[in-house]
Amino acid sequence: MDNFKSIFVIKKNNFFFLLLCMYPWALISGPFLSDIIGIILSLYLVVISIFQKNLKYYKNLYFIFFFLFCLFVSLNSIFNAQNLVSIKSAIFYLRFGFFAIAVHYILKINHEKLNIFFYSLLLALFVLSIDSAFQKIFGFNIVGIEKNEVRISSLFGDELILGSFVIKILPIALAFVIYLEQNIKLTKILTILILSLVPILLSAEKNAFVSLILFCIFIVFIFDYKIKIKLFFIFIVFSSFFLILSINKDTKSRLFKEYIQSMVATKSIYTQVHISHFKTAYKMYLDKPINGHGSKMFRFKCSDPKYVYDEFSCSTHPHNYYLQLLAETGLVGTFFFALFYLSLIIILFKSIKLKKIVIVNQNLPHSLLACSLLITFLPISTSGNIFNNWVSSMNFFSIGILLFFLESRLKNKKYD
Predict the structure, then answer these.
(1) Which of 266-270, 385-389, 412-416 has the lowest average pLDDT?
(2) pLDDT in tens, 167-182
(3) Is the pLDDT of residue 149 over 80?
(4) Where is pLDDT greater, at 325 or 264?
(5) What angle do CA 144, 146, 147 make, to 5 degrees?
(6) For 92, what's the count of Cα atoms within 13 Å in the CB-facing half-sphere?
(7) Model confidence at 226, in pLDDT bands (50, 70, 90)?
(8) Which end of the chain is more exposed for a tag (fewer CB within 10 A), N or C?
(9) Which of 301, 295, 299, 302 has the alpha carbon at shortest distance from 328?
(10) CB 94 within 8 A of CB 102
(11) Residue 145: left if φ>0, alpha if ψ -120 to 50, beta else—which one?
């Protein structure tokens, strides 16, 4: 009987671990499959917690603050926004917190199989790199999806989010290759970087491109290599940059020429469309500064004459996380988000040796994840809709993996 129970537990763990390994591919397919897998993994965590009578994950300070944020957003949408889209978005947002913990838990109990998860990530980067190059050269990708005039979407089809996806998967892949190997080989790090660099540049996503540059600068800073090796690293990465951009002049034009022209015209780092969204969101915030208008309400309120800035005012979201939160959740909701961002800064700085200003190797995995999230949530950057299912799935996937590495650093002997 005990043997049968053990086999059942192993098969059950294998099934949910397999789902987690498939998750990056589900994200590539779109929001539907990733949502289904996310819900299944979240329910699995809740059921396990009940049967094992283990509530330690929910007593975590991060989860408590996230629960309070979700509670506020839900009540705000119900009593303030009174809009079905807003209410549904707010009430079900809590599931992403459960999902992040589920990612952490499944990785922890399948510690001996983490290389499988890593290879799934690596294969996804490899396929997107090859497929995006194929689509750029031939005008269609390996499944027949035709390319946009300038921007490459690869397997994402009509959704121009290739760069956004890769720039979030890159730090996760690097964190695992460092965690799984005793000796950190520069060749493997460069290979993963270049695999990621190709689709990011071909996607011509400005925000992903800037995020990649910031992340590369961070890598040079934290890796404890000799200066010659760091210079070699910089040479290889930026040579790859210039090679890809010199071959693809239309991509180069979008990332540099058009962007510079926009900066000159607006006298800022943003396009006129983004500025219009920002000013509209700010007007909404000023009207309801404490609790905002309710989640996902920007799309409904932006056409109101008292918030309209110009003909570019309206969109589904204002393309900046902080301005969206200010407009839709006010100072209260933004306060919770600011606490989360501050915690990421603390996590990163705790990993730094103040005397040498260099991060020790055992802290690299969670440092890379913390840095990636700091760049993702950088207050001055443009962004997607913070309450969007796909965007939230990507963000909380990274958060769950960060939680895993944080616990591993504290408990695993390799980090003693």
Answers:
(1) 412-416
(2) 999 999 999 998 988 6
(3) no
(4) 325
(5) 135
(6) 16
(7) confident
(8) N
(9) 295
(10) no
(11) beta
Q: What is the mean pLDDT of residues 206-216?
A: 91
- Give the tokens for residue 255: 């990332």
pLDDT in tens, 236-285: 888 887 887 777 777 777 777 777 777 778 888 888 999 999 999 999 99
3-state secondary structure the chain: CHHHHHHHHHHHHHHHHHHHHHHHHHHHHCHHHHHHHHHHHHHHHHHHHHHHCCCHHHHCHHHHHHHHHHHHHHHHHHHHHCCHHHHHHHHHHHHHHHHHHHHHHHHHHCHHHHHHHHHHHHHHHHHHHHHHHHHHHHCECCCCCECCCCCCCHHHCCCCCHHHHHHHHHHHHHHHHHHHCCCCCHHHHHHHHHHHHHHHHHHCCHHHHHHHHHHHHHHHHHCCCCHHHHHHHHHHHHHHHHHHHHHCHHHHHHHHHHHHHHHHHHCCCCCHHHHHHHHHHHHHHHHCCCCCCCCCCHHHHCCCCCCCCCCCCCCCCCCCHHHHHHHHHHHHHHHHHHHHHHHHHHHHHHCEECCCCEECHHHHHHHHHHHHHHHHCCCCCCCCCCCCHHHHHHHHHHHHHHHHHHHHHHHCHHHC
| CB of 75 closer than 8 Å to CB of 95 | no
The CA–CA distances, whole Å, from 107 to 6, 47, 104, 195 equal 19, 17, 5, 24
pTM of the model: 0.92
Q: What are phi and psi of 160, to 5 degrees?
A: -90, 65
The rounded distance, in Å, linking the Cα atoms of 114 and 103 is 12
Q: Write out pLDDT tens, residues 55-113.
A: 888 888 889 999 999 999 999 999 998 899 999 999 999 999 999 999 999 999 999 99
